[in-house]
Amino acid sequence: MVEVDPFWVMNVVGLLAFAVAGALKAADAGLDAFGVAVLGVVTALGGGTTRDVLVDRLPASLATLDDMSVALVGVALAIVLIRRLKGRVRDHPLFLTSDAIGLAAFAAAGSLVGVQAGVSPFGIVILGTITGVGGGSIADILIGRVPVVLRDDFYATPAVVGCLGFLVARWLGAPSGVPAGLCAAVVFGLRMFAVRYEWRLPKVRAGS
Amino acid sequence: MVEVDPFWVMNVVGLLAFAVAGALKAADAGLDAFGVAVLGVVTALGGGTTRDVLVDRLPASLATLDDMSVALVGVALAIVLIRRLKGRVRDHPLFLTSDAIGLAAFAAAGSLVGVQAGVSPFGIVILGTITGVGGGSIADILIGRVPVVLRDDFYATPAVVGCLGFLVARWLGAPSGVPAGLCAAVVFGLRMFAVRYEWRLPKVRAGS
Amino acid sequence: MVEVDPFWVMNVVGLLAFAVAGALKAADAGLDAFGVAVLGVVTALGGGTTRDVLVDRLPASLATLDDMSVALVGVALAIVLIRRLKGRVRDHPLFLTSDAIGLAAFAAAGSLVGVQAGVSPFGIVILGTITGVGGGSIADILIGRVPVVLRDDFYATPAVVGCLGFLVARWLGAPSGVPAGLCAAVVFGLRMFAVRYEWRLPKVRAGS
Questions:
Q1: What is the tens place of the pLDDT at every residue in A135-190?
Q2: Helix H or strand E encompassing B25
Q3: Closest partner CB to A32 (pick from C119, C144, C153)
Q4: How far out from the chain centre does Cα C194 lie?
Q5: Is B146 in the A-facing interface, judged by CB distances under 8 Å?
Q6: C neighbours by CB contacts (3+ pairs under 8 Å)
Q7: CA A81 to CA A95: how far, in whole Å?
Q8: With left for phi above 0 and alpha for psi between -120 and 50, is residue A207 left, alpha or beta?
Q9: How far is A143 from chain C (nearest CA, A)?
């Protein structure tokens, strides 16, 4: 039987999904084909590069062509899709779904890197969350928007809950791949529910 | 007699003060309770995490729960306070004072880390200044404002002067804790004076 | 005969050119003398510091006073120049030329660091490009603009092509200094042509 590396799976899925989401975001911002490609690649590679810098290893995005190539496939896919969409891309189910897939897959990938780097259980949750929300936040900053992680209560929250699920599954001795799969499923499920039912917390004050 | 670690003191004071300042800033930007908490935590942890990445060590914010817990106490405090404030929070003495305390404590904490990491005297000043201004700058970028360090002449300047005071005190052989305490006192004093008397430099040109 | 270190040359040229470009950008944004100096220094040091963090070495900007001193000379030069310029600085040939020089010199400097750090050929191209576009992108984010690397198709592209030229020259066994010089010449030439003839790609869709 072929043994599949759970990190490899989560990383490829996350790269593809975030490259699509980032490219769609760029189209909304009125960027041209080149800007769309750059924002897609930055969204795909941003979270993982931040994660690798934090745990003090050479970012995978610098070491090999692999991550960049997968991201470019995602960008190409997005450019084909963009022409068929109408209205604001960022309210479109295609964007919201690919963004949720990226968030879920990268939260799992970040948790796996945390285990490998030997950080504390707390550090694993933080690293998984940063890997999940990092790429999209950098992309939002680049196009001058307040990052979704600040505007939407149930963007970082699903990532945190999923990473806690990862820890519990590992602690219960689940076999290889199960903690990561559970993490991704929890993050994706919670995020899509939050988008569908528009969960949100009250404002602290009515503004000034 | 109990020996108190000067870094520990400066770190806890800075985390609390910047968590309060960051959370108040978020309320101004119209974010809800979750956004307020995230911005408070990012403001508190941002400067120290940047500092740790620069001197190539695992960020304290990833290694233990301690820093995050202190930051959350600060956020809770801020949420209680926010309801009592009127008008723009960022002109309120409570915001300006907590921001100055954070700047002062983190400039001292950053200088101490510089000594420990064995960087040059010049590097100590830069590291202390980056630790002081880092968290607030990241928070400003996230909510789409030009960072205070660019808009206000006497934000980075007090940090630089305080870190120079730190170096002089160390060079004169002051006992443990004195250089850090002097640094924090100088930064806080200069910053509060600058705010009170609205010190500023002339513009280079009258704009376009 | 005196042996000149190609990295040293490219680094000094890049620091001076980007300090000028960054300071001019700050004047456009209506910042005062202090903000102009900070933005000039951040533009000059930002790309190299990011590069050093990525390849896991203590940033040169923290290790010695050298880089900061060169950047301050560039800022001083810019402040003298600013008073003589009229209209929007960012359309002025002086800004566009100094920005292109910085892009070219830093793409070469980043490629040389990549060789020294032992990263893959692909990593060398990425590192050279990030070093070239990094400082200006950070500066744009700080003053609240979408970074030029996203808006302008032929900003990152010349850097990528120049770094590929660097690799080819090295592979052909060109003597020390030639690959870096070729890289800088290609980047500068392509960038100036792109600015002069307003090369650009079509938008992916007509906006929303």
A1: 999 999 999 888 988 888 899 999 999 999 999 999 999 888 999 999 999 999 99
A2: helix B6-28
A3: C153
A4: 16
A5: no
A6: A, B
A7: 10
A8: left
A9: 5
A-chain residues near C208 (CB < 8 A): 28, 87-89
- Give the integer Cα–Cα distance in Å for B45 and B68: 8
**Residues on chain B touching C68 (C-beta within 8 angstroms):** 122, 126
Q: How far is A37 from chain B (nearest CA, A)?
A: 23
Cα dihedral C20, C26, C28, C32, rounded to 10, equals -120
Distance CA B48, CA B134 (A): 8
- Does B207 map to a domain? no
Nearest to B104, CA basis, from B184, B194, B7: B184
User: Closest Cα of chain C to B142: distance in Å?
Assistant: 10
- List the 121-140 stretch of C: residues with Cβ below 8 A of A: 122-123, 126-127, 137
Domain count, chain C: 1
Is residue A11 in some structural domain? yes
Q: Which of A55, A164, A205 has the most B C-beta neighbours within 10 Å, making it the best mutation to test the interface with B?
A: A205
User: Is the four-CA dihedral B85, B87, B89, B91 of positive or negative sign?
Assistant: negative
Whether residue B15 contacts residue B49, with contact meaning beta carbons closer than 8 Å, is answered with no
**B196 touching chain A per CB within 8 A:** no
Chain C contact for B171 (CB, 8 A cutoff): no
Q: Work out how many CB contacts closer than 8 A connect A with C.
A: 83
Phi, psi dihedrals of residue A205, rounded to the nearest 5°: -150, 165
Neighbours of B83 (CB within 10 A): 9
Q: Summarize the confidence of residues C128-138 as an average pLDDT.
A: 94
Burial class of residue B196, CB neighbours in 10 A (0-12, 13-18, 19+): exposed
Distance from CA of C119 to the nearest CA of B (A): 18
Residue whose pair of structure tokens reads 């949720």 in the numeric block: A100
Domain that holds residue B84: 6-197
- Coil, helix or strand at residue B145: coil
Q: What is the dihedral of CA A147, A148, A150, A151, to 10 degrees?
A: 120
> Residue B127 corresponds to which amino acid?
L
Is C196 at the interface with chain B, CB within 8 A?
no
Q: Is residue A64 part of a domain?
A: yes
Q: Measured between alpha carbons, how far is residue C169 from residues B132, C8, C14 in Å?
A: 44, 19, 21
Structure confidence by residue, pLDDT tens digits, B159-180: 999 999 999 999 999 888 999 9
| Alpha carbon distance B77, B135 (integer Å) | 18
Asked, for residue A208, whether it belongs to a domain, the answer is no
Confidence of residue C63 (pLDDT cuts 50, 70, 90): confident
From the CB of residue C169, how many other CB atoms can be counted at a distance below 10 Å? 18
